[in-house]
Amino acid sequence: MATKKRTTTKRTNKMVYYFGKTKTEGQNVTKDILGGKGKNLAGMTNIGLPVPPGFTITTEVCASYYDQGQNLPTGLMDSVKKNIRILERELKKTFGDSKNPLLVSVRSGAAVSMPGMMNTILNLGLTDVAVEGLATATGNRRFAYDAYRRLINMYGDVVMGMDHEHFEKEFDLIKKKYKVTDDTDVPEQGLVELVAAYKKAYKKHTRSEFPQDPIEQLKMAVEAVFSSWNTHRAVRYREVEGIRGLLGTAVNVQAMVYGNMGDDSGTGVAFTRNPSTGENKFYGEFLINAQGEDVVAGIRTPQPVIEMRKWNDSIYKQLISIKSVLEGNYCDMQDIEFTIEKGKLFMLQTRNGKRTGAAAVKMACDMVREKLITEKEALLRIPANDLTQLLLPSFTVVSKAKAELLTIGLPASPGASVGKPAFSAEEAVKRTAAGEKVLLVRKETSPEDIDGMHSAAGILTSTGGMTSHAAVVARGWGRCCVAGAGEVHINADARTFTINGRKFNHKDVISLDGSTGEVMRGAVETSQPSLSGDFSRIMRWSDKSRRLDVRTNADTPADAQRAREFGAQGIGLCRTEHMFFEGDRILAMREMILAENVKDRRKALRKLLPYQRRDFVGIFTAMKGLPVTVRLLDPPLHEFVPHDEKSQKQLAKKMGVKVAAIQERVEQLHEANPMLGHRGCRLSVTYPEILEMQVTAIVEAAILCKKKRVKAVAEIMIPLVGTARELKLLRGKVAETIAATKARRKFNGNLNILIGTMLEIPRACLTADEVAEHAEFFSFGTNDLTQMTFGYSRDDINSFLPDYLSQEILPVDPFQSLDTTGVGQLVEAGVAKGRATKPNLKIGICGEHGGDPASIKFCDSVGLNYVSCSPFRVPIARLAAAQAALSR
Amino acid sequence: MATKKRTTTKRTNKMVYYFGKTKTEGQNVTKDILGGKGKNLAGMTNIGLPVPPGFTITTEVCASYYDQGQNLPTGLMDSVKKNIRILERELKKTFGDSKNPLLVSVRSGAAVSMPGMMNTILNLGLTDVAVEGLATATGNRRFAYDAYRRLINMYGDVVMGMDHEHFEKEFDLIKKKYKVTDDTDVPEQGLVELVAAYKKAYKKHTRSEFPQDPIEQLKMAVEAVFSSWNTHRAVRYREVEGIRGLLGTAVNVQAMVYGNMGDDSGTGVAFTRNPSTGENKFYGEFLINAQGEDVVAGIRTPQPVIEMRKWNDSIYKQLISIKSVLEGNYCDMQDIEFTIEKGKLFMLQTRNGKRTGAAAVKMACDMVREKLITEKEALLRIPANDLTQLLLPSFTVVSKAKAELLTIGLPASPGASVGKPAFSAEEAVKRTAAGEKVLLVRKETSPEDIDGMHSAAGILTSTGGMTSHAAVVARGWGRCCVAGAGEVHINADARTFTINGRKFNHKDVISLDGSTGEVMRGAVETSQPSLSGDFSRIMRWSDKSRRLDVRTNADTPADAQRAREFGAQGIGLCRTEHMFFEGDRILAMREMILAENVKDRRKALRKLLPYQRRDFVGIFTAMKGLPVTVRLLDPPLHEFVPHDEKSQKQLAKKMGVKVAAIQERVEQLHEANPMLGHRGCRLSVTYPEILEMQVTAIVEAAILCKKKRVKAVAEIMIPLVGTARELKLLRGKVAETIAATKARRKFNGNLNILIGTMLEIPRACLTADEVAEHAEFFSFGTNDLTQMTFGYSRDDINSFLPDYLSQEILPVDPFQSLDTTGVGQLVEAGVAKGRATKPNLKIGICGEHGGDPASIKFCDSVGLNYVSCSPFRVPIARLAAAQAALSR
Q1: Which position among B846, B849, B859, B869 bears the catalytic label?
Q2: Chain B 238-267, CB below 8 Å of chain A: which residues?
Q3: Residue B394 — pLDDT band, cuts 50, 70, 90?
Q4: CA A701 – CA A699 distance, rounded (Å)
Q5: Helix or strand or coil: residue B622?
Q6: What angle do CA B580, B719, B821 make, to 5 degrees?
Q7: Do A641 and A664 contact (CB within 8 A), yes or no?
Q8: N or C: which end of chain A has fewer CB within 10 A?
Q9: Are B678 and A800 in contact (CB < 8 Å)?
Q10: What part of A 168-207 touches B (C-beta under 8 Å)?
Q11: What is the mean pLDDT of residues A304-328?
């Protein structure tokens, strides 16, 4: 984003820069002055490419225009006329001429590409006289009048603010009269009549004649471009995008060329390399005897560029050579537009081309090999988020284009999945085991659904946001998830759901695109990802450049292993709550929760201990000596107890207690706002025996590993600390338990277990100096920190977030990308205060933001030691960390 | 709280200070050195009062004791012995003497009164020899042996750490032997035998003989006092109370006097003025032939002090004259202890006496009149919270002492109320209308219960904290409320509740003490408050001294009126949500919520408009031109819809829609964490028409008032703002609506309506510089700010708060008293950043903390303009604000 200060730009007196064979004045002028388009036109002209000549009126003129109360500065039009004269001489055409008139296009163009500003005006210079001149010069009167009616329409619309409808109406009358339906079938005479009708409508609505002086047309068009700089839409766009310090927009006036002058004419668009694969082959399409808009409109089917060899091999060769010149000059893949007018090639546009993640990786590596760019440039050029496309399945473009879109939810976890709906976790497990591919369709998910979520090919929820339970868990596994699809109304009992009145059941095949949130009908074809050598190369270069370590959030040996393969340097967040849901564990967990005294609670905890120990042995082993940060139990206990009567009855039977007792305890555990309730370290304060069991399991697992000569590096993280006293108390209990366990196991070695805390409560950040006295590391939990700093519940935010985004109150969902303005202040305070107490305090981040490139950049800038993210985002984080370090 | 730094105290060489007729050395020494008790004993001796002589070993000696590894400093015992000699000479008694032995008491005494340190040892100096001496000197051998057995018991217990049980056992054996049940009935011989048995037990458990050298007894006792300074309990107490910088404890050694030496002896305690009423009359009681502990134990009934005139008028006169001397010296009401030994009066203790709120007010005013103190001193001396006792009914002490306590909940809203349980709001309304006095007993309350809460004499809830809905609303009305009484298990369907297994129904009379949280059985007698002229005087003086304005939180004309009578200078928080629950309004409100489009919503809102307008006219009129800050709708919409099927069906019928439609909308409105959900200004963003209706009502009400020549000063407050953009957008809508309403009503005058916001989201405080750009005032909503800064839900905090307080993780419930360490940082940031943008920005506080003296002190220190609190706390806030200003 260009954010140059206005004061850094020197004002020159030159208002207009010419580009063409005669001279190219703009080659050393910045795009702050010429705008992006003007700079590129000057650039292409300068390196000798065939560009229709023209000139650029600078952004400084736009600034003057506003400085002088929306008046063009003195001398501008003289200068414009002078440049028109040069243009006339160069092209041997004359403005408004009755034989061979000069026609130009007028376009806006600021230093930053900016939708919302003025559209293009084409064919400017046509008048009642010149139109006949064009007819003579081209030998095509229909063509000339078609151009003229287009000019009047565009001019009326864009310069005079007329309603497009007025022209539409006239066109319809003419088509009716000539009994045709397509514009192109209107005969020459019809167009002549249309021009007359357009001029009449123009007069009626603007109270003036359509100007017959080309210079007047041009002057008005220039003013219209300048005015468009300050329309509400444009101002708002700059505000939202944080575009500041621009002078204004430039105006580009360029000679017209026509691709629709016969079979020796044509037009096309192309990429200098394949934007899907990155392959170094010219890639694009063209249409014979057509204008640029025809390619875009899709009425005629264009041919691949390679076919041009048959039509006009010399033009093809010329394009191939232009590809090299452009890439050599811009050092990047170019997206170009060109027109062939009567066998002569003209370049109309060049810009860096958009590309897929795979293509970005391949091109960057290829260009390093070709010595076009350096490794650093290669890294900075790949949008880190696009690496997802290399890691997860996606729908093929062709198949998706044909699919029927049912609704769009939130793109909660990328990937593509196809299957039939299952309406409960149980059902998902059963049907998957029976060989079906199912999608778990739920209002929202809870930890109880873990098994079903893991079985399902994909997850669809009707409520919940980007950081809802379903979303967080799915991202952890790289499982496709569309969340918060509000139009999906689920009737779990009937095992159906409806979308806009249409009903679906467990037999209907559905496709989910987790990268876009799209829910589609039927089976859309997917393509599987494959990792190339270039991917590894980018990762290697990233590792050389980055300052931040990258860890992962993983709760199972399988996730841990995968993350390590993706390059994770440790586990930054090992949640222990999911571990309690499998098989018999949940029963023991529930016994623990339902226990009425410490003794019974301890008894239940003793049953859980061996499970936890085994989990940790598995994870330590998978991580091969890399650090594993284990977070002690965090969620409120009610998440573990059954809420429906059937399950409560089952539990009562299994436990041999009355169902009323279970219901009473469940009722007791109910909270108005569980997110702000009895959870995190608050559980350890009231039930220290849970902490003791977990720490015992960690220590015993570490000892078991040591005995098997497996290196185990454990870090114990106490969640949701809000006051230094909480941490002091619990840290003491953890340390005591470590010592007691070592003694009981007769282990004298050093386990070097660090004890630290999560900073996720605003108060902990504000008092981080005190908290740090009792912590060996900090890890920012920015999910909760964002919830509390904004006062947003991530589970409920969907009720107002769409309005907040569309009304631009928020630039982005703060759960997706860290709010550096507000939440960032608390992160900075946490770091500064923590390190004021302990200068070398290790500090990381383990919220969802740890995998978001913009947030990673912030983490780098405030001096964190590491970020931790879900396994599938580890490569993204490695690249983003490198980019952050390189662009410091 | 004394927090003198250790470094500020100069060490002297003098270790022991004598007080008595011979000399008084401590009169110019601070209590840092002598301790509080030592200082007072020296003080009383110095002004010529009859104090048993003795000496004080300084706190510096205690510090040396610890500096030297718990050894008494060299020379101390020499000095002690020297002082014992002086004492012997002065009293003509000798330590350990076989005829007339000197006996002393040994007491600890730090500069700050500190429970947890050593108890008193009495009768020190008794040995096998001295006990016979005492028998001779007093002519009472039973008395002598009783004193001796007490010494051995106390010494064994306190100095040697013996278990009290060992002595108890021996005493039981003796009582059995002599067939008596009371200690006092054991004959002389029995006590002689008991001493022998005690000495044996002492030897068995301490492996040493009971020391027969009085100096050795004294040395050991001094060491025991010093050791008690660092017991776990004492250290913890200082930590919790924030007592820092003390040197240690002093030791007071004082000659024994006895009130139990016959009918010319006695003992008593008294206040120099009536501590209940403040009346300037000597007030207390005495017992003839008794020791101090007999008065406390309550076995015998003491006589009022006035009766002493009959018994010994000269002693009475002496006491009256001592009263004047003490008050003249200490300039405050004194709480004294005295003993008469054989017709001679001795003063044992004096300290500032505790008093009721009414007494505090009266005494302070009286003493100003008596020129004992200044107005400033008078103000600083009244505990602001105690004013509650002057404003609300309370239980009489006598009646309460007899009442049966059932359980204790949270003292959520002070006052005393008696009535029979009602289990729903509806029932409370009905039965009250029928003339019954009822208490609303609910698990928790919601805005739907407003009517019932208002009808009830008091409110009892089983969940919810000090800032739960019930608590906040009750405090607003001055209605008695006990909240979060967890032992109360309510069965609303059966219309019963149980407390510890005992069942109560709608016929059982219950009494609630909202100042203590006590729930009592039956009707406890109450006394009604009455306001004195002295109360007004204190208020007047307060108003002269304070810098902070005091506003009130009031939602109805009646509350507004009452608050203005209590001195409120405006309404700082007028909540609009309660207004929607009465009669037909709730139906219109529900129609609005259930509306499926803007048109229907507007239609329902049009029905609400006249109600709101009338509300505001009433409130503006009641406030007579004082500012009224109206907060726009804040709570989530689901609070207004019915959640039980019966009410849903009724609503469906009234609205003519299907019950399923209502259920679906209710379901849709459900939120996982409503506190962090779709509420506050977020409602205005998604449903701007609600804001428009409310602002229209405010503006129309203001215009109506103007026309009736009633001054109306409205301020519109936008709640729950988290980003400057929200406020910018909504401020714009408010301003537009004001302008549109004025135009529609053809009103051209200036209404001067300020538009501001609540700072209650951490992010708003962190970005207050940006927020201030769009605000004409700020008001801190510290309830929500505390919730989010700590991550505590005020509705759920009871599940862990008791543990947090008992384990001293939190010094106090942060919803009661503002957490200056954490939340305070955000308040300070909000003020600093807000005023950085607008230096004169008006800033207040309208959370519950606005009525808490400690929080008011903080508000004063950070430069707020006003505090706003519930009507009944306005006088408290006025006084607290004055105290804050005076103690700056």
Answers
A1: B846
A2: none
A3: confident
A4: 5
A5: helix
A6: 130
A7: no
A8: N
A9: yes
A10: none
A11: 94
Nearest CA in chain A to B799: A678
Does residue B117 register a pLDDT over 50? yes
Task: With both helix axes pointing from N to C terminus, report the angle between A598-623 and A557-565 in degrees, rounded to the nearest 10.
Answer: 30
Most A CBs within 10 A among B682, B727, B761, B812, hence the mutation to make, goes to B682
d(CA A353, CA B216): 97
Q: Which residue has the higher pLDDT, A184 or A3?
A: A184
Residue (of B562, B571, B872) closest to B717 by Cα position:
B571
Average pLDDT over residues A783-795: 95
Percent of residues, chain B, with pLDDT higher than 90: 75
Q: How far is CA A715 from CA A20, A423, A764, in A?
A: 67, 38, 20
pLDDT digits 0-9 by tens, A9-55: 444 579 999 999 999 998 889 999 999 999 999 999 999 999 999 99
Please give the structure tokens belonging to residue A636.
């409120």
Please state, in angstroms and rounded to a whole number, the distance separating the CA atoms of residues B564 and B113.
40
What's the rounded Cα separation, in Å, for the pair B393 and B407? Answer: 21
Contact at CB, A791 and B823, closer than 8 angstroms: no
> In which residue are the tokens 């977070």 written?
A631
Backbone phi, then psi, for A155, in 5-degree steps? -65, -45
How far does B838 lie from chain A, in Å, by closest CA?
A: 20
Kindly provide the ipTM of the predicted complex, given to two decimals. Answer: 0.84
Percent of chain B topping pLDDT 70: 97
pLDDT above 70 for B840: yes
Task: Quote the tokens at residue B272.
Answer: 């120099």
- Using CA of residue A259, residue A264, residue A268, residue A270, what is the dihedral sign? negative
CA dihedral B661, B665, B670, B676 (to 10 degrees): 180
Minimal CA separation from B574 to chain A, in Å: 22
- C-alpha B714/C-alpha B626 separation (Å) is 9
Which pLDDT does position B413 carry in this prediction? 87
Which of chain B's residues have a Cβ under 8 Å away from the Cβ of A682? Answer: 800, 804
Q: Closest partner residue to B792 among A676, A767, A799, by Cβ? A: A676
DSSP-assigned letter for residue B157: I
Inspect the interface and report whether the beta carbons of A766 and B825 lie closer than 8 Å.
yes
Cβ contact, residue pair B673, A678, below 8 Å = no
CB of A771 within 8 A of CB of A726? no
Confidence check: pLDDT of B302 > 70: yes
DSSP code per residue over B681-710? HHHHHH-HHHHHHHHHHHHHHHHHHHHTT-
> φ, ψ for residue B582 (rounded to 5)?
-70, 145
Cα A743 to Cα A730, A749, B122, B558: the distances in Å are: 20, 11, 48, 69
Q: What is the distance in angstroms between the Cα of B761 and the nearest Cα belonging to chain A?
A: 6
Contact B676 A792 (CB under 8 A): yes
Q: Which of residues 805-844 of A touch B (CB under 8 A)?
A: 807-810, 819, 821-823, 825-826
Indicate yes or no: CB of B822 within 8 angstroms of CB of A686.
no
In the stretch 121-160 of chain A, residues with CB closer than 8 A to chain B read none
CA distance A432 to A410: 25
Tokens 């008078």: give the residue. B378
- pLDDT of B516 reads 87
Edge-to-edge strand ranges of the sheet holding B410-413? B404-408, B518-521, B510-513, B416-422, B438-442, B458-461, B480-483, B410-413
The rounded distance, in Å, linking the Cα atoms of A654 and A591 is 10
Cβ–Cβ under 8 Å, residues A264 and A342:
yes
Test B800 with A673 for CB contact under 8 angstroms: no
Rounded Cα–Cα distance for residues B158 and B225 (Å): 9
- pLDDT interval class at B402 (50, 70, 90): confident
A577 in reach of chain B (CB within 8 A) = no
